[in-house]
Amino acid sequence: MVINGVEYFEPYKNKETDKIYWLTPIEETVGEHLFSFDLQKVYNLFADYPWKLSKEEKELFDSENPYWFEFFQDRQ
What we know:
The protein has 3 helices and 5 strands; from the N terminus they run βββββααα. By secondary structure, it is α+β, with helices and mostly antiparallel strands. The chain has one domain (about 1-70). It is globular, with a radius of gyration of 12 Å. InterPro entries: DUF7675 (IPR056092).
């Protein structure tokens, strides 16, 4: 799968009911956690959360990923 010129392995969801896709680039870099809501726009967890997410995206992300919500409490 290619998104914005970057090739990824098959996207996956942590749970079948999740809305968020997690992405792994073919040319993987250490420590990157990439995700997408629509397989069009890709977010980098450490660089973009929560600032580049819409209010609705952040709410969805937080509900599906309580670990990361807690991890980034200082960014709330």
